Amino acid sequence: MKYRVLLVGLVALTTVGCASAAEGTSATQLATTSSTIYDISSCVIKPFAECPNKFLSNDVQPIDLSGVDLHGANLVEASLEHANLDGSNLSGANLDYAYLSFANLRGADLRYANLGESNLYADLTGANLTEANLVGARASGAKLTNANLTGANLTNARLDLANLKGANLKGAIIDNVIWDHTTCPDGSNSDANFHCGYP
Predict the structure, then answer these.
(1) What does the longest C-alpha to C-alpha distance in the chain come to?
(2) This prediction's pTM
(3) Could you report the per-residue pLDDT of 121-130, keeping only the tens digit for each?
(4) Phi, psi at residue 130, to the nearest 5°?
(5) Using an 8 Å Cβ cutoff, are 38 and 30 in contact?
(6) How many whole angstroms separate alpha carbon 50 and alpha carbon 78?
């Protein structure tokens, strides 16, 4: 699917007691300033943000949201393709049906997040997905090495070609998962180790 670019840029809205952004500050610099709240496509990036159906990032204009606090945010059907969310806090966020292809979610906090039916061809190396809802998630080819999926619900998820080496799946719900050329938590291949040893 091709997306029309709707990213309108970053408008810094500094919090009380914080200095305003210096003239000439780049979009990337604004995005990585932890004390700054900023507006993207009429979406104020902050905890519990209401940003459903927003085009926030794509391959033409990827956004750097590394380390940002978006816990509890409503990002249903949001486009975050190619976004840098390294180390961001998305705990409890609603990312159902979100587009996260090629996103960097390394070390992100996604505890209790909803990622149902999301497009999750992304780098989730070391991400914390404890008790996350991944029902129907399309994680084909995703990097989930050393990810924490304790208690996560993976019912009907696609994990074909995904790399789960070192991932923790203790207590995870693994029903009707699609395994095909998947690298299992123990490093084996799901084609040789049927369903990575899961029912």
Answers:
(1) 59
(2) 0.80
(3) 999 999 999 9
(4) -55, 125
(5) yes
(6) 10
